[in-house]
């Protein structure tokens, strides 16, 4: 996809987001767009920046590190959205401001250790597994609640628990997709009442195929790749 096509896609997707916000009685501008640039070259990220986009999502640390180091743009913000191995945490923290795919206690321990070394504070979202066809995320709410308890105890002073993330099933059945988003929204309400001291505010849900539904279900951040940058070439 060339630069002008990408820029045009940004205008289209932003318009769709705005329509969905209005249709569902949400405030205009209440939904953030995270542009998922995985498997796309740094030129595409530059095209997005020309369209006024500064928040990006990547799921592989190696690729994200290379791309965003090369980009070297202080205004660009990067979120890691893919499953993260503990041995990649250090590298992830060098380029990302947020890890959206936190799914286990040992990962939080490693993030805390590395963030303390770098003397920086990192934001995280807890990812909840809500769809059969995805493997990522905390397997159930109880294990996720244990992590929240550890935050409430003050175990992770260099980490800010800022939200929740999930991936809905890749299904044509809209009901299943909605159930997945509703599950995440309900969990956020539970966390906010159980742990009022934790700043869990974001609901990161919705991708190219289902972001309009996600906005109707209360998403505050959609993660869109294909609808902006085109199909990914997995052979690179
Ligand atoms: C790849 C990816 C996306 C974007 O998917 P599209 O369908 O291309 O919009 C969103 N979230 C996560 C976690 C992803 O891995």
Protein traits:
single chain, 236 residues, binds pyridoxal-5'-phosphate, eight-stranded parallel beta sheet, alpha/beta, 9 helices
Individual helix count: 9
Regions with little confidence, pLDDT below 50 for 5+ residues: none
Order of helices and strands, N to C? HEHEHEHEHEHEHEHEH
Give the helix proportion (percent range): 40-55%
Bound molecules: pyridoxal-5'-phosphate
The biggest sheet amounts to: 8 strands, parallel
**CA-CA gap between termini:** 15 Å
Strand order, largest beta sheet: 7-6-5-4-3-2-1-8
Which of globular, elongated, flat, extended, rod-shaped describes the shape? Answer: globular
Structural class by secondary-structure content: alpha/beta
Strand segment count = 8
Radius of gyration, whole Å? 17 Å
**Arithmetic mean of pLDDT:** 97
Percentage of residues in DSSP E strands: 15-25%
3D architecture notes:
- Strand 1, helix 2 and strand 2 (55-58) form a beta-alpha-beta unit.
- The two termini are 15 Å apart.
- The protein has an 8-stranded parallel beta sheet with strand order 7-6-5-4-3-2-1-8.
- The chain is 44% helix and 16% strand.
- It is built from 9 helices and 8 strands.
- The chain is of the alpha/beta class and 236 residues long.
- The structure holds pyridoxal-5'-phosphate.
Summarize the structure.
With 236 residues, this protein is of the alpha/beta class. It is built from nine helices and eight strands.
List the helices and strands and how they pair.
Layout: H1 3-23, E1 32-36, H2 42-50, E2 55-58, H3 61-71, E3 77-80, H4 89-95, E4 98-102, H5 105-118, E5 122-127, H6 141-152, E6 159-165, H7 174-194, E7 202-204, H8 211-216, E8 221-224, H9 226-229
Parallel strand pairs: 1-2, 1-8, 2-3, 3-4, 4-5, 5-6, 6-7
Helix pairs in contact: 1-2, 3-4
Bound molecules: pyridoxal-5'-phosphate.
Residues 36, 38, 59, 81-82, 167, 207-209, 223-227 line the site of pyridoxal-5'-phosphate.
């Amino acid at each position: 996809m060339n630069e002008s096509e990408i820029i045009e896609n940004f205008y289209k997707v932003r318009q769709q987001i705005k329509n969905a916000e209005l249709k569902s009685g949400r405030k205009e501008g209440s939904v953030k767009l995270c542009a998922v640039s995985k498997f796309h070259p740094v030129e595409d990220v530059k095209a997005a920046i020309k369209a006024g986009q500064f928040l990006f999502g990547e799921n592989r640390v190696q690729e994200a590190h290379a791309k965003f180091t090369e980009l070297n743009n202080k205004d660009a913000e990067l979120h890691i959205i893919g499953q993260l191995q503990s041995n990649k945490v250090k590298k992830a923290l060098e380029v990302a401001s947020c890890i959206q795919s936190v799914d286990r206690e040992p990962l939080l321990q490693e993030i805390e250790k590395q963030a303390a070394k770098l003397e920086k504070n990192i934001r995280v979202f807890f990812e909840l597994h809500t769809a059969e066809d995805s493997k990522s995320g905390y397997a159930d709410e109880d294990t996720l609640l244990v992590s929240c308890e550890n935050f409430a105890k003050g175990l992770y002073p260099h980490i800010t628990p800022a939200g929740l993330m999930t991936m809905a099933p890749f299904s044509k059945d809209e009901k299943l997709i909605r159930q997945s988003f509703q599950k995440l929204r309900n969990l956020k309400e539970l966390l906010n009442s159980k742990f009022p001291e934790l700043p869990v505010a974001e609901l990161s849900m919705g991708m190219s195929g289902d972001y309009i539904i996600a906005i109707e279900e209360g998403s505050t951040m959609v993660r869109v790749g294909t609808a902006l940058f085109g199909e990914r070439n997995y052979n690179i």
